Structure formats: structure tokens, C-alpha cells
Amino acid sequence: MKKANISESKIFDFVNRLVLLLIAVIIVIPVWNIVACSFSSGKSLAEGGFVFWPKEFSIENYKAVMNDMSIWKAYIISIAKTVLGVITHVLFCSMVAYGLSKRDLMGRKLYTAMGVVTLFFSGGMVPTYLLMRQLNLTNSFLIYIIPALFSYYDVVILMNFFRQIPVSLEESAKIDGAGVWRIFLKLILPLSKPAIATIALFNGVYQWNDFMTAKLYITDKALYPVQMKLYEIIVQQNVKNMPVGSVVMDTTSKGVQLATIVITTVPILIAYPMLQKHFVSGMMLGAVKE
After folding, report:
1. Predicted TM-score of the model (pTM)
2. E strand or H helix at 176, and its extent?
3. Is residue 17 part of a domain?
4. Residue 131: inside a domain, yes or no?
5. pLDDT band at 280; cut points 50, 70, 90
6. SS3 letters across 178-194
């Protein structure tokens, strides 16, 4: 019986590893193709076909991107909105989650029900646009920050994590004279690094990849993030066949697009390994409901 269980376990492990390897290959090959094409010359790209290794190795595509100041400005906007967006989102969601984690909070069930509704229903694109315009957030940097302050999904992760912190720690801090804000900032948040890293990564990826916010609410090109700039490059070169900024597009238009994609992806690739340990821990701990 034991031998049968061991055999089944080995078969499961083999199949599991095979499936994971297949998934990894499916993900890695297209990404590698983009990187290889971005380092290929315009002439080789014009020939078409799958590129596994750079044909006629060239860094001209990256030079074209680097020499376009509008892309650098868009990059700065993306970095600013991601950093500020993550910080404000984490603080706001943490405060809401800390309050809702208290079972004696007056009206807690009502607040929870209101939060659950936001998980399944939204006001819709047109009403949301009218609201943003009424609040004078269109063509404003704050459009990237204020609407993204709250996510009840992240609140649930933090709320369940906060409940696992022993109440005795807070009681001990109160005896020492600490107030609510001091307990929250000096005790609760430092103990919640895994959960905070989880929602920070979620929101950071969202903020960095967010394209629709700029598309819907921004017409001032000075406020374009890098994703919107990439969209502008692709549309103007493929549809209008005209240059963007100081980037000169001939047969290297595809190469410049791919080089821009690589540059926009690098920050997320750097962030994931740094936060992966906390991310996994936060997902597991935040998923436990008492």
C-alpha cells in the first residue's frame, strides 16, 4: 500500500513539474522573442518570421527610444504615479482595514456590506467619467491617485491579517500610554509587512500597467504615462505612419515599439523577485478567515 502511494506521489510530482515547465515555456518564449527582436536591426525585422536570437545585432532601437525626451517624461510620470499611488493606497486601505478588523466597531456589518457591493458592481464608465470631470480631476495628475485609493479586495487581505495579531500586544501598548495612531503606525504596520507587500505589489503592477485612466481622462500629453506613450507610438506609426517626438521611424518602427515594451517591463521584473517572499507569505496569511 505504501509503495502504491509513493508511486502515485512520484507520478503526480512528475506531471506537476511537466505542466509547470510547459506553462513556463509558453510564457518565456514570447517574452524572449520580444527582447530578441528589440535588439535586431530594422532590415532583419522587415523580413518577418520568428526571431529566437537577434538578427544583425543592433542597439539603434534603444538609442531611438533613449533620445526621445517625451518617452523619458512619460517614464517619470509612470514612476511618480506608481510610487505615490502605492504609498497612498497602502495607507488608506490599511486604515480602513484596521478599523474593520475590530469586531466591536459600530456599524461594522454595514460598512462590510457596502465594501462587498463594490466587488461586484461599479457605477459604469460614463457615470464615472462625469464624476471625475465634476471633481475637476480630468487632465490632473491626481486622477492617477485618488480613484485608486480604495480597493475592498485589498482591505479584506489586510483585515484578516490584522485579526491574527494578538490583542495582547495592543493592550500592552495601551498600558504603556500609546494612542490609536501610534499603535497603528508603530506596531500594526511593522508587523504586517507580508500583507502590505502583497497589496503594494498588486497596486504597483496595476499603476504601472494602467492605460485606460490616461486614455479616458487625460488629453494633456505632458501627463501621459509610459503605457500611453507606447500606445501613441504604435497607433501613430502603424496607422498614420508618422514620427513621434524625436524618434525617427523608418523600417525600425517595430523595433522601437518592442524596445519601448522591454523598457516599460523592466521595473516590474525587478520588483517581483524583491517582493516575492513577502508576497507569498501575505497571500497565505491574508487568506485565513477567523
Report:
1. 0.76
2. none
3. no
4. yes
5. low
6. CCHHHHHHHHHHHHCHH
* Nine cell digits for residue 183: 499603535
240 membership: H or E segment, kind and range? none
Contact 58/36 with Cβ under 8 angstroms? no
| DSSP for 132-174, written as a single string | HHHTT-TTSGGGGTGGGS--HHHHHHHHHHHHTS-HHHHHHHH
The answer to whether position 245 is within a domain reads yes
Span 88-102, pLDDT tens digits: 999 999 999 998 988
CATH assignment of the domain containing 251? 1.10.3720.10
Residue type, 102: K
Per the structure, the count of domains in the chain is: 1
pLDDT in tens, 2-60: 555 667 777 888 888 899 899 988 888 888 888 877 777 766 666 666 667 777 777 77
Residue 11 included in any domain: no
Domain range spanning residue 246?
A: 61-286
